[in-house]
Backbone:
């Protein structure tokens, strides 16, 4: 039964993707992108990837849509119809699609336990996680301890992208400075979003904190929690206006979160070295290696959460601040 | 069992089609934001391919439950790779959009042929 549902979801995914590309109204395209992400998250969940589904739902359907919309507000949402012939791109894409589909017949079928991908290092991770870390969620264990280097790299990519956005959008645009609107923006004059949204914000942030600190036991962790908390604050900014959100969480705090989170992650690695272990080998952090691993995982997950939350919010504010100018 | 076989290939076909829909938007559309939307569809298709490979028949999400013996778990490794890739994806997408916004301010348009014409 669940597989029939999966077929249905996958078909919807293709229809949505085609609709996104066909529409010339970019606002519609962005809204469809949000639906696309939600369908993708449902598919991930059916394929046993609970952590990934949570991330895709929070990031893809939430944060990405808001960032796209703030870019549309600055760059216009009408796409001009295409002038030249469609034949060449359609032909190229068609030939490539046939080639890839031909190649898929060599893939192991879905769920094959003998597929090469399940023979390599993954069984070792599943076997050793209870022994080394003694935490239930193997995804968190692999993310933060076994493959901590990868995650450190990803956090620094997020950090670098955030700094890049701040530099690109922080430059004052040419022309005279605009008068800032006197009355606060936001949805203050819409009663229903105001009441419902205000009720939701604390629960979203609370859920984010739960996902952060429960990430070792259930689906969750720093990446998801950072995105969820950022969504909560963005919702507050949409309701009350950007200035009010910046009063609640000032820019300096956001920058501190980004830099502090990335530094915290790196610092744990250095502390491990100072205590006689390898970089990011948390076993040396405590007398009991298992407890040391758990401590390291909790601290670096906190660092990841801080960095992701701060980076996403800084990016949102960078776009939103640009809107007040000409 | 038979149905699962069919779905196995169907997942890969959906991957191929969605990947190509994204590529089509990137190579054929003139609007820069539309190109970025196409790029993120392309990226999502790759995520679907990885997560399709992590599924093990009869398996469950790789969260170990105490007291349950002989559980089959799906592969945690592709999940870890894609989980971080999604968050990195949104950051790099924002960087791309920031550049588009600056192009719009400098050229007054985000249509590629008009930008090339203005240069």
Residues:
């Amino acid at each position: 039964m669940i597989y029939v549902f999966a077929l249905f979801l996958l078909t919807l995914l293709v229809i949505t993707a085609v609709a996104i590309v066909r529409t010339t109204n970019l606002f519609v395209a962005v809204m469809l992108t949000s639906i696309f992400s939600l369908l993708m998250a449902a598919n991930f969940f059916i394929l046993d990837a609970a952590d990934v589904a949570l991330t895709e739902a929070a990031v893809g359907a939430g944060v990405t849509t808001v960032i796209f919309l703030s870019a549309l507000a600055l760059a216009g949402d009408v796409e001009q119809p295409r002038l030249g012939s469609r034949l060449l791109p359609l032909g190229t894409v068609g030939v490539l699609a046939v080639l890839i589909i031909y190649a898929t017949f060599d893939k192991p079928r879905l769920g094959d336990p003998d597929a090469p991908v399940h023979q390599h290092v993954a069984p070792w991770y599943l076997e050793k996680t209870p022994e080394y870390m003694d935490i239930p969620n193997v995804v968190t264990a692999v993310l933060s301890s076994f493959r901590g280097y990868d995650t450190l790299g990803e956090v620094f990519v997020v950090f670098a992208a955030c700094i890049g956005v701040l530099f690109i959008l922080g430059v004052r645009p040419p022309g005279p400075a605009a008068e800032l609107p006197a009355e606060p923006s936001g949805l203050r004059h819409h009663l229903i979003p105001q009441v419902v949204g205000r009720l939701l914000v604390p629960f979203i942030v609370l859920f984010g904190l739960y996902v952060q600190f429960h990430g070792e036991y259930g689906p969750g962790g720093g990446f998801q929690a950072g995105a969820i908390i950022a969504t909560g604050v963005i919702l507050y900014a949409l309701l009350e206006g950007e200035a009010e959100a910046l009063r609640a969480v000032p820019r300096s705090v956001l920058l501190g979160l980004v830099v502090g989170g990335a530094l915290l992650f790196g610092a744990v690695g250095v502390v491990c070295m100072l205590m006689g272990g390898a970089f990011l080998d948390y076993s040396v952090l405590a007398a009991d290696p298992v407890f040391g691993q758990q401590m390291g995982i909790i601290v670096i997950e906190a660092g990841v959460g801080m960095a992701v939350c701060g980076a996403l919010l800084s990016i949102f504010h960078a776009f939103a601040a640009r809107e007040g100018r000409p | 069992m038979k149905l699962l076989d069919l779905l196995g290939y169907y997942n890969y076909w959906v991957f191929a089609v969605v990947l190509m829909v994204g590529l089509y938007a990137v190579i054929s559309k003139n609007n820069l934001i539309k190109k970025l939307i196409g790029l993120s569809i392309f990226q999502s298709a790759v995520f679907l391919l990885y997560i399709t490979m992590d599924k093990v028949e009869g398996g469950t999400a790789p969260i170990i439950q105490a007291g349950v013996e002989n559980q089959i778990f799906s592969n945690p490794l592709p999940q870890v790779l894609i989980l971080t890739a999604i968050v990195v994806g949104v950051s790099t997408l924002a960087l791309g959009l920031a550049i588009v916004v600056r192009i719009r301010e400098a050229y007054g348009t985000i249509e590629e042929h008009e930008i090339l014409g203005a240069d």
